[in-house]
Design a protein that fits this description.
33% helix, globular, 109 residues, Aspartate Aminotransferase, domain 1, alpha+beta
Length: 109
């Protein structure tokens, strides 16, 4: 999974924080972690502002972070995940004032 993120978004930087890999591009973008039951997920720090047109996000359990869970036996959604990573990169490239406008749009939907 780490290799996939780094290959899909080569401009991101990997750092280990809280014993898990975080991926940065002009700020925090996403991180990889596991649940208490051992499920692996990719958490998008500003997932609230991402479209989820790909349908990958699980039911929201936090205000801002959105998670994509990976389950054994199910196909890996490579193309959809690449698209979601690119959307997160584009969001981080926005100026802060543009991010606020995105946030307002997300809250009204």
């Amino acid at each position: 999974m780490r290799q996939f993120v780094l290959q899909a978004a080569p401009q991101v930087e990997e750092r280990f924080i809280y014993k898990c890999p975080f991926y940065y591009y002009l700020g925090q973008m996403c991180y990889m972690s596991t649940t208490k039951t051992g499920s692996v997920y990719l958490g998008f720090v500003k997932g609230l502002h991402l479209s989820n047109d790909q349908g990958l996000f699980a039911e929201a359990d936090t205000k801002q972070i959105r998670k994509v869970f990976f389950r054994p036996g199910l196909p890996f959604p490579e193309a959809a995940l690449r698209e979601l990573l690119q959307e997160a990169i584009l969001y981080n490239e926005l100026k802060p004032s543009q991010q606020i406008q995105c946030k307002r749009r997300a809250l009204t939907q």
